[in-house]
Amino acid sequence: MLGTTLGLVWTPCAGPVLGSILTLVATSKDTGWASLQLVVYATGAAIPMLAIAYGGQAVTTRVRSIARIAPRLQQGFGVVIIAFAALSYFQYDTLIVAWLTSFYPNGQIGL
Fold this sequence. Notes:
By secondary structure, the protein is mainly α. The protein is built from 4 helices and no strands. 83% of the residues lie in helices and 0% in strands.
């Protein structure tokens, strides 16, 4: 189940990047550089998956201790989601992003 969920989330984000790298590899005359691009991509994709795999084992042992406060956690995160939805509805999220970009003037992308 976790693998299916990860695939559904990962594919829309990683698919275009992988497609771009594969296009770059197919059109490149330097096979060493193209191979390095694929190795870097594969390593970058594997590290989060390994972290999920090994971290998941550690989390499952701690879930039992968190189970007694799970209803309060669900309520708390529900409030956070509703607050973010309200901020987005009233377009405060764009104001926050605009304010944050003032700290990084070179990183502004036309917001």
